[in-house]
Amino acid sequence: MIQSLKWRTALMLAVIVLGVFFLLPTILGPDSGLPDFLAKRKLNLGLDLQGGMHLMLEVEAEKAVENSLNRIGGDLKDSLREKGLRARSIEAHGGEVVVLVHDAGTADQLQALVAKNYPGLETARKEQTAEGVSLAFALSKREIQDTEKRAVEQAIETIRNRIDQFGVTEPLIVGQGDRDILVQLPGVKDPERAIALIGKTAQLEFRMLDESVPLDQAIAQGPPLGSEILYGKQIDPVTKQVIGRGEPYLVQKRVPMTGDVVKDAKVQINQQYNEPYVSMEFNSTGARLFERITAENVGKKMAIVLDGVVQSAPVIRERIGGGRAQITGSFGMEEASDLTIALRSGSLPAPVKILERRTVGPSLGLDSIHSGLMSAGIGSLLVVAFMVVYYKGTGFVADLALIANLVLIGATMSLFGASLTLPGIAGIALTVGMAVDANVLINERIREELRLGKSALNAVEAGYHKAFSAILDSNLTTIIAAISLYAFGTGPIKGFAVTLSIGLAWSMLTAITGTRVAFDWILRRGSVKRLSI
Hints:
Blueprint: H1 2-28, H2 36-39, E1 44-45, H3 47-50, E2 52-59, H4 61-82, E3 87-93, E4 96-101, H5 104-117, E5 121-129, E6 132-139, H6 141-166, E7 172-176, E8 180-186, H7 191-199, E9 204-208, H8 215-221, E10 227-235, E11 242-252, E12 257-258, E13 262-270, E14 275-282, H9 284-296, E15 302-306, E16 309-312, E17 324-327, H10 333-345, E18 352-360, H11 362-415, E19 419-420, H12 422-451, H13 456-488, H14 492-525
Parallel strand pairs: 1-19
Antiparallel strand pairs: 2-8, 2-18, 3-4, 4-6, 5-6, 7-8, 9-12, 9-15, 10-11, 13-14, 14-17, 15-16
């Protein structure tokens, strides 16, 4: 029995020491001088406590449908070429892909090709014209719904990836309704940069320039069929900020390659000009595709287009293998860094617009901290005082277990980088009451056993044994409720559930094992024969 007591004591001391160890970064602050691996593991404050940004975004899902039709239009051109079929034109507009072919036979083969390879497309119209046969294909209603749903889901995941790389701790990013996304970013220091990064569509396209007609003629008379005029950006040479629309380019509408094949992107420095640029690495598919495109277009210009803006248009000097490319331009370091984040996390399937934007200032956060800590502190002090007054020495032991419980809650949240919110403080306050409730049950059982004439040691053993089942049932049902709140709740509800679950789990150790170890040392190893209860 003595050997068992030593092991239990060693376990409790080890847990408490580790708890204090992982709580040190939170207690000492950022200038603690602790090792990096430990200094990073501190208790973070949620949006309601430290301030930050609240955004409600709407995904323009209809743009995802439009983009899908544009991709289908490009794929159809390649498919027709592989089948040896010719089309006068293929245009995606007005929610349709319109294909003009020379004769009815080609039209029938085209319909068979679409039915086989594009199950989401339906023939909307088939008309005989003076130039041939015109077929209009549109997405089915179900395909449109699925495309819009996927767009919202992909937007949530893309925004989450970008925010994670941006360095925001414990962001909240959840869907709201069919198209809306709620974003909460605690502690954001540069809200404008965060908004720009979230909203950057980052649709990267590699498109060939149309050099069939002079640029001046295309601007004056309109671009030829299958091409459009895009612009670069005018950069202030000192501030590196965009100050207007830059040089025009006549660019083919066909997109032979997109940023979907980008595997990695990094910021590099041009040693000659000391300016940053973005270095990209393609996946295996992208590497093969880029090599083929450059081999077929040696001597021609390729436009690198990001969100409809031409970043650069270099001449292809030779076939480029190796799966690497660069985006050059007058980048500032932050702009280049944000661009690499956007490319690594993937492009948004459709643009997003801000429906609601609120900034929680630090003064509100400090007020919340003060009020929350005040209420939790007063409640805890009252509970501690009650235990000492009502249960005397055994109440003091319960209070020590309660302090250990609070230390372990903070240490656990620090270890996993969790955020403390105002509802989380409420969860801690409730945990205090639940933890003390376990000791109340134990102490009342011990009192009953002492009234029956048992010795102090036997009364303690019987009290813990008889109270255990009731304590376990109570804590277990509450933890199940807390897990349900976390699984199905959002934001503040999750914060409450996290601290409540952690607190109840540790209270099973501190309120039962911890206090029992203390009583065993007092009664077995000490000379005390009578409990102060």
